[in-house]
């Protein structure tokens, strides 16, 4: 039996010591141990069973890949039996955001325009996780083409927050966040263009890391904004996230923008004592409506850090205030070009009965893309168009460089930067869907990391007054993921704040 | 009324001869079954990323250096955005503001035979598109993406070309250079060289006609014809209708081979909005000067310079120089044959052999130079045997027919078969006397005033010497005895 | 930047999106509102900043000219909305290159 009754779909999977609820290192070690009875197949079956029970209420998954997962689990178990090492993620069920290619499984990006499309090759990040022993149990829901902060822009159905089924899980990697938060999987892959891993991680009370641009291959990740996109891990703890990141990172001959960075391995000598943490004036939430709880949570963590011997450094990065405008030019501009390939000629949806080429294009794209995607294509096309590109796109790119320089300077004065991940906890489904600009402002604390190409991690940081999870964000210079993960672990120990299983309420599930 | 000045700038798209495509490891070659040379990058599958082929860059640099271009130290790639069925991603990866090659030029002869340099604006690397074919009068177009992603060098000239003839010579010079470099097949029929001339006219009063770009031209000759047509057409619409740049937009016309005419396709009323921006999937490229210099050091002597050297230093006629340099392989063969063991051989003699017996053999037997058993050194030996008088011309030709197939040493064969010319007076005189005795009638005829009869006696004497007699000596003796 | 319906239609045409009149009427004020916020970019003083986001690579960093795996025509056509034999098919269009078929 997996658990006791609870408002979350009637069942909670957590019986405290189910192997699926253990740290990833523990469950993988048990699978790899020939003398331990726990098998990869058991882990995968448990995960699939939880998905079957819980997902109807959550909508975290767009499809399950039972056969694939079980075949992969059997392969892991066969390796163990043969005395071979199946890898550090042996038998660990993994959910994959549905903008990453898994051959044989449909790839939808949460869009109707990819109807019927099945990719022939693997996304490098997913393939590497599988090589490390992970088993793919399903593809998770997202805002269409990763454009959104709530998964409400999914062409299929919104996902729900396991902590409150009336609320969004965040986005765009909302399905992955909900799947991890609900305990259906211990690990998930997300993608982050402007906060799409960190914001849902924050809203769902889990850990989510956006790596340094170029650390993880984008091959097989359906591009939203190529100079901003990164694939990253979502997990219940920083150490779990570290294992997944270590498996997927590294130079890839299929992605010319990948590079080698410092190892993400834990540094046993790392300590909060002596740590210089930056506090950026422009990230203050005092004036943001509803931002008091997040501000208080950050202040609480700062107090713990100071007590542990860390030193706060006050910083100002003036261009952070322009990061949303810069982002909402650069990202749509690249997206408008990246999404041109969805034209009904080679794959995906094609309109019926178009008599000429122009209407084939225009109707296919009108029918296939959702409202938000069209909006961003229009913004981006405009920002690149003759007569406007200098004022918008070129200016934004130059400002982006200056922003990166401001971060470089900041990291000469501190080891990492501390901020909230989101101004507020999860909002209600439908609350912001009529107001695109309000939705864009959800990314106000996250987009700067993508613009600067630097790593940032969101970790659980207590709850707001309504009992909803809040996230704390740690930012570091390029390649500093190892240090961010070390700090995240130590802060979790020092504050006692971390992942908590949902005590869901609301909804009609 | 004087003829207007003709301004022609040419855009050439040159397919570079790599094994794989510009941004993906898919093979490329002409003439494959449709949609078989495809990988996820070429097909523009979601999530597929371009990865630049070093060889494409190297061939582009090599070509640019041969044109005398400046090679950029820092170059980058840009997306040119437009929708087209043969453009899988909805954008073409090209170069906008930082082309790989800038400046340079190609030297040609103008219409009076004087040297003239056609300056280049730039040459940049980009990917090719696929190909579409259309139902004649039907409802469908078919798309084959094999060619998509093949590396192209787009070479843009200044409007320095002043006539159809110059345009043809420009293209031929360009083709010849790339064939010397081995960077492209440069074949217009297979589409690995495509050419779009931009033509307009300037009249004496300063009026200019609107620039017309002509597309779909499939041979060098037709480039000339299209330009000739445009000059006439633009002159006519200027005089008849007063059409100038000021009142007529730029346009694109297509060459119609069956009508031998250009046909209007579209006006470029507003500049096409390609929304260029830097390709975020590809980092910029920095090209070390050492790389460029190493490539420069590898450049062969270019055809025009080589031709000048053949004419001036080797003393060959312009025609001989033209023929011998027309094909880099032939030229190299010729130069190897020229190199004797003790200094260069007589260029004219070697050239005669190469253009005479050797080319005749290649044409008749339909074989390539590389398939011959005869080596350049072998031909050189044969030339030496002739020029030094060891064998006569007839023997040499007969010998050529053997060694061209066998590859044996001509000198060794002369030795083994005793083919050396008979140059001693004794045996020659004996043979002439014998011939006179055997052809009494001819002797009488000759002495009776018929000079033609002499040939019969001469032939008989040579026959008596098995064809090896030194013809000059035979003649000399015959004259004495007659 | 005020984005009116004419501009929306122009941009939609460039982007090959067929928008209904209602969509155009709805989107124009949304974009105007978004650009009212985004417009602060135009006022930033960032002259001289290098817009490149990535460090250049040397020639040695590029791919070797070695053939890799090809997609099987089947894999291409399986995902294609329409094909004729091995060709992808679209409504007939004019590209100037006539009569090659």
Keywords:
heterotrimer; B: 482 residues; alpha+beta; Arc Repressor Mutant, subunit A; 10-stranded mixed sheet; 3-stranded antiparallel sheet; 19 strands; elongated; C: 101 residues; Histone, subunit A; 3 helices; disordered C terminus
User: Proportion of β residues of chain C?
Assistant: 5-15%
By CATH, the topology of the domain at 5-43 in chain C is Histone, subunit A
Category by helix and strand content of chain C: alpha+beta
- The shape of chain C is flat
Compute the gyration radius of chain B: what is it?
31 Å
Rounded to the nearest angstrom, the distance between the terminal CA atoms of chain B is: 73 Å
The geometry of chain B reads as elongated
Q: What's the alpha carbon Rg of chain C, rounded to whole Å?
A: 23 Å
Structural class of chain B, by secondary structure, is alpha+beta
For the termini of chain C, the CA-CA separation is 49 Å
Main sheet strand line-up of chain C: 2-3
Helix content of chain C: 25-40%
- In N-to-C order, the SSE pattern of chain C is HHEHEE
Secondary structure: number of strands of chain B: 19
CATH C-level name of the domain at 5-43 in chain C: Mainly Alpha
Largest sheet of chain B: 10 strands, mixed
What would you note in describing this structure?
- The complex is a heterotrimer of chains A (509), B (482) and C (101).
- Chain A has 509 residues and is an alpha/beta fold.
- Chain A has a domain at 5-272 and 483-495: Amidase signature (AS) enzymes (Alpha-Beta Complex), CATH 3.90.1300.
- Chain A has 15 helices and 13 strands.
- Chain A has helices spanning 24-32, 40-58, 66-81, 124-131, 174-181, 198-204, 238-248, 292-307, 323-338, 357-368, 371-384, 390-413, 436-440, 447-452, 481-495; strands at residues 5-6, 10-11, 61-64, 93-97, 135-140, 187-192, 207-210, 230-235, 276-280, 311-315, 416-420, 456-463, 469-475.
- In chain A, helix 7 (238-248) packs antiparallel against helix 15 (481-495) and helix 9 (323-338) crosses helix 12 (390-413).
- Chain B has three domains: 5-290, no CATH class; 301-417, no CATH class; 425-481, Arc Repressor Mutant, subunit A (Orthogonal Bundle).
- Chain B has 16 helices and 19 strands.
- In chain B, the strands form five sheets. In chain B, strands 1, 2, 6, 7, 8, 11, 12, 13, 14 and 15 form a ten-stranded mixed sheet that branches. In chain B, strands 5-4-16 form a three-stranded antiparallel sheet, with no helix packed on it.
- The N and C termini of chain B lie far apart (73 Å).
- The model of chain B has no long low-confidence stretch (mean pLDDT 91).
- Chain C is built from three helices and three strands.
- Chain C has helices spanning 5-14, 21-38, 73-78, and strands spanning 57-58, 83-84, 87-91.
- In chain C, strands 2-3 form a two-stranded antiparallel sheet.
